[in-house]
Amino acid sequence: MALPDSAWPDDPWHSASELLALGTAAVPAYGSGSLADLLPTIAAGQGVPGPRHTLTELAPADRNCVFLIDGLGWEQLKAHPAEAPFLTSLLDSSRGGTGRPITVGFPSTTATSLASFGTGLPPGSHGLPGYTARNPETGELMNQLRWTPWTSPRVWQPYPTVFQLADEAGVHTAQVSSPAFQDTPLTKIALSGGTFHGRLSGEERMDFAAEQLAAADRSLVYTYYSEVDGKGHRFGVDSDAWRGQLMYVDRLVQRLAEQLPPRTALYVTADHGMIDIPFDEESRIDFDEDWELRAGVALLGGEGRARHVYAVPGAESDVLAVWREVLGDRFWVASRDEAITAGWFGGHVDERVYGRIGDVVAAAHADVVITASVNEPRESAMVGMHGSMTPVEQLVPLIEVRS
Fold it and tell me: What's the rounded Cα separation, in Å, for the pair 300 and 140?
């Protein structure tokens, strides 16, 4: 089980590894060292009213940019210095580097992390608690990345984004990303505020982000790149394709850093790390073929390494007992209330979010996933996976460059 309070002190890299060795889930550092704390800290330094967070090492700047690289975990970056020489140079404290790891939150997955990043809230508040989650109003599984089946975005996530608060406070606010993301519900509820600028290539995004930073005395700019994650899912996080993407984003970061206008802070971070899972029966447990795990289960949500299990009414305790017995040496398995009390989703869970969380929540700590070959064929075929609270998935870089 997880600890009742945050288990990530100033050195989450070592504390997480030690807790994992003890069989304990390290609760993400909500409120002190998580992805949700980054934008509120930046905005507070620009005079934007809102919650105050405690990334105290971040000094205020007039102009701020966050470059979020999908899927670039701290451990993967540290393991590949040859492919990322510029980023690696920014980690070297002996040369003035400021890079350190922060936690992303649970589950460590894109929809949840982008919502945490953009709203400054943990999953229990913003209400995107996984890749897929049950809609208590309809009983259907909702894919919160693709937003299917449709539900009203503002009903699902009613809180303002930090970008909206900054824009209302007079800060020049912009998002520079792929044109494909401009009108998605996830963008609307997590990243909207100010103006969205679609640019196809990474180089165009870096150049235009620099222009937007210089457009006002106070500016807040967000830019994003997705293909590190895409290549990791398809080929694995040590493949030639993945290494090529790391080399490319390293050049993108340097390109942007070299164009920063005066009085600017650039922050490079990510939404999760990733782990490669072998294609064998021990590592990939197929829920659709496992009668024992299916017994009493009405819906299977989440993703391979972070499952929400929705039981048939009345079968909740039996499902919890079976999942613990079958998976307890490879997964942290908790009831909904246990996971909430332990702080997996933050210090508070809104009433509207409570029923979206599984009756049973299972998070992998071994190199294993629960696939669903019939209902999730695409996801089940991925090489690289993420979602849980292990260091390789949970820790992402927070790298700072100032002009």
Answer: 11
Domain holding 364, by residue range, is 284-385
Selection from 273, 242, 277, 297 nearest residue 371 by Cα: 277
Distance CA 39, CA 168 (A): 15
- What's the pLDDT tens digit per position in 33-69? 999 999 999 999 999 987 666 787 899 999 999 999 9
Quick one: tokens of 237?
């996080």
CA distance 31 to 122: 9
Sign of torsion over alpha carbons 205, 211, 213, 218: negative
Around Cβ 168, how many Cβ atoms within 10 Å? 14
Long-range contacts of 377-382 (CB under 8 A, 24+ apart): 379/303, 379/304, 380/284, 380/286, 380/304, 382/233, 382/234, 382/304
Q: Are residues 74 and 179 in the same domain?
A: yes
Look up the CATH number of the domain holding residue 187: 3.40.720.10
Q: What is the DSSP letter of 366?
A: S
Same domain, 120 and 37: yes
Question: What confidence tens digit (pLDDT) does each residue in 87-127 have?
Answer: 999 997 666 667 999 999 999 999 999 999 999 999 999 99
Q: CA–CA separation, 376 vs 391, rounded Å?
A: 26
- Which stretches within 307-374 are classed as H helix? 316-327, 336-342, 351-354
Peptide bond into 136 cis (omega under 30): no
pLDDT digits (tens, 9 = 90+) for 353-371: 999 999 999 999 999 999 9
User: Encoding tokens for residue 205?
Assistant: 């995004």
Q: How far is CA 80 from CA 71, 87, 108, 243, in A?
A: 14, 10, 21, 8
